[in-house]
Specification:
Pfam families: MFS_1
Number of domains: 1
Largest sheet: none
Subcellular location: Membrane
Mean pLDDT: 87
Protein name: MFS transporter
Structural class: mainly alpha
Number of helices: 18
Radius of gyration: 20 Å
Number of strands: 0
Keywords: Membrane, Transmembrane, Transmembrane helix
Distance between the termini: 27 Å
Helix content: over 70%
Membrane topology: Multi-pass membrane protein
Order of helices and strands: HHHHHHHHHHHHHHHHHH
CATH class: Mainly Alpha
């Protein structure tokens, strides 16, 4: 492994650029199933609307379940073996899995490959944000993670274009090919100097269970997880099930999940930029997060109650602004990385976003139960979304501010 380089004064370092491109491919592959869900299931013989919804939710759960497992695997590996080992290993796994996804002929094959892809997808963002956070000066690392997120989430836009223009199988092939090509760029990236210094000590690294053996550490970790749940309520429930919500809201025309995902992630590009910039300008991660959570609550209400009997164009416009409102994803992961020492930083920064993503596994049955109990998907989503946003707001309010924090320390 090449020797580490000293921190840079510019934010456009090799680590930032490669992490941004890696996250671009990661988001492309992560959100691709939501884009091609209906078309791929129809080709595999699932044509009944209810079956498409049920099977689609099952496959999402398999992918997100893989991300739960992968979050722990890659997080621990990142602290034990280094940030770069995760950046190489994770992208190789999910690239190969997505290429194989293009050949599936049964739902069972589809499910297992989404699980494997999910495991691979779990490592990219946390390792990239950790490396960037440790490589940049503390006053500028928020700009670095902002660049990673802004470029990264635009991968969903390419996924929509490829999926619609070339078909769902070719879309998986393209995603896998992009990942393999990105491996060639990774050779120019240096390992984190903080990690290399800490790796020479006798301090235990990557002990995931140590997050649960100290009450204060556990409380902080759980609050971090709760901050990310609203984003995946929006993406995993509201946007992925856009056709179902469109029918329930009586829209004047049919809407597609792929286009809803496109507009939501287009909004996320702007949201990630503005949330990161505000956290730097205000010198406060927590203040920026609180503003965006309130903004998100307003837009969730608009989505569920403000577009009834509206046109698809109005609905997609709301999806775009809803995407802006949940554009605090990289800021959330940055906060996770900044809250813990070098020997647990990759573990936290990798498990936190994946456990938040994996919350979809719990959100889906809760959504189904509330929809049945309250007489429809709209009131069910309103209650579930309201609860997730309230809890996330409380978590931010009680979390220590991390802007400008010195990260060169370890957890005892």
């Amino acid at each position: 492994m090449p020797a580490s380089l000293p921190p840079k004064t510019t934010v456009f370092t090799a680590a930032v650029i490669v992490a941004a491109l890696g996250y671009f491919v990661d988001i492309y592959d992560l959100i691709l199933f939501s884009i091609v869900r209906v078309a791929s299931l129809n080709e595999l013989g699932i044509t009944d609307a209810k079956a498409v919804t049920d099977r689609g939710l099952f496959l999402i759960n398999m992918q997100m379940g893989g991300m739960l497992l992968g979050g722990i695997l890659w997080g621990v590996l990142g602290d034990k073996k280094g940030r770069l080992s995760v950046l190489f290993g994770s992208i190789l796994l999910y690239s190969l899995a997505n290429i194989a996804n293009g050949f599936v002929t049964t739902i069972d094959q589809y499910a297992w490959l989404r699980l494997i892809a999910g495991i691979g997808l779990a490592g990219e963002l946390g390792a990239g944000i950790t490396l960037v956070s440790e490589s940049l000066p503390k006053e500028k690392r928020g700009y670095g993670t902002m660049i990673v997120a802004t470029i990264g989430v635009s991968g969903a836009l390419l996924g929509y274009w490829v999926g619609n223009r070339f078909g769902w199988r070719n879309a998986y092939f393209v995603g896998g090919g992009l990942g393999l090509a990105l491996l060639l760029l990774r050779v120019s990236v240096f390992e984190s100097g903080m990690f290399q210094q800490q790796a020479q000590s006798d301090v235990a690294r990557g002990n995931f269970l140590s997050l649960f053996t100290n009450a204060a550490r556990l409380s902080k970790y759980l609050r971090i997880l709760l901050i990310g749940v609203p984003l995946w309520f929006v993406v995993g429930i509201l946007v992925t099930l856009a056709p179902e919500f469109g029918r329930a809201l009586g829209l004047t025309g049919e809407v597609t999940a792929g286009l809803a995902v496109f507009w939501c992630y287009f909004g996320l590009v702007f949201g990630d930029f503005f949330s990161g910039a505000l956290s730097q300008i205000w010198h406060s991660r927590n203040k920026a997060l609180q503003v965006f959570l309130v903004f998100c609550a307003v837009l969730v209400g608009t989505y569920l109650f403000g577009v009834k009997d509206a046109s698809p164009t109005a609905f997609y416009t709301v999806c775009f602004v809803l995407g802006v409102s949940v554009g605090f994803w990289a800021l959330f992961v940055t906060v996770a990385a900044e809250q813990f020492g070098t020997n647990l930083r990759a573990t936290v920064a990798t498990t936190a976003p994946n456990f938040a993503r994996g919350a979809v596994v719990g959100l889906v049955p809760a959504f189904k139960y509330l929809s049945g109990a309250l007489g429809g998907i709209v009131p069910g989503a309103a209650v579930l979304g309201g609860l997730s946003l309230l809890v996330a707001f409380w978590a931010v309010r009680t979390l220590p501010e991390s802007y400008g924090k010195d990260l060169d320390y370890v957890e005892e």
